[in-house]
Specification:
Elements: H1 2-25, H2 33-49, E1 73-75, H3 89-102, E2 119-126, E3 129-135, E4 141-143, H4 146-149, E5 167-174, H5 178-181
Antiparallel strand pairs: 1-4, 2-3, 2-5
Helix pairs in contact: 1-2
Length: 182
């Protein structure tokens, strides 16, 4: 029976590696993000249940990073983790329970939206001025892309008004519409 689990783990690893290649190298995905995420989750569960089949080259061990050695590396003040996908009401309810618990039971609201595939960015403002823009990188360190981000007209270089903290960070996603890309 254990051989069947090992066989399935090997099948999932091979298939996920093929889909990663299609997506990232060929820019020609052959399955949906949800299908990929479902396979990855199945593999994660199997690897958790059968740790004797651990492989450091498994797709589950790959940490996404957008670090580019051409840029100066900056360490984030707080790790900039990637977000997990949710495909069911139960997963969203579980997330909401964890969020409320982290807030000491205080009520909170969430907003859901379709997934955008862009570049995660951290913007640091001091005294209302943009002082640094850093990519997510590996979550601990990212590329300082301040000069590049300053060309994006929708990102304020100097905040208007008053009442904002002396220093704060905004995290989000930078997107380029297909029409602009074309």
């Amino acid at each position: 029976m254990t051989d069947l689990f090992k066989q399935r783990i090997d099948e999932l690893r091979a298939e996920l590696n093929r889909h990663n290649y299609n997506y990232y190298v060929l820019n020609a995905p052959t399955i949906s993000d949800k299908e990929f995420d479902d396979m990855l989750r199945e593999l994660q569960d199997l690897e958790r249940d059968y740790p004797q089949y651990f492989d450091p080259l498994s797709p589950t061990q790959r940490v996404g990073s957008d670090i580019n050695k051409a840029f100066t590396q900056v360490t984030h003040e707080r790790p900039m983790m990637s977000l997990a996908n949710s495909y069911s009401i139960e997963e969203v309810e579980d997330f909401l329970r964890r969020a409320k618990s982290g807030l000491g039971g205080e009520d909170c609201q969430i907003v859901g939206e379709m997934k955008f595939d862009g570049t995660s960015i951290s913007l640091t403002y001091e005294n209302g001025r943009l002082v640094r823009a850093v990519t997510r990188g590996d979550g601990v360190r990212g590329d300082d892309v301040t000069a590049n981000v300053m060309t994006i007209k929708s990102i304020p270089l100097q905040l208007q008004g008053t009442g904002y903290p002396e220093k704060f960070e905004v995290r989000g996603e930078i997107l380029m519409p297909w029409s602009t890309f074309d």
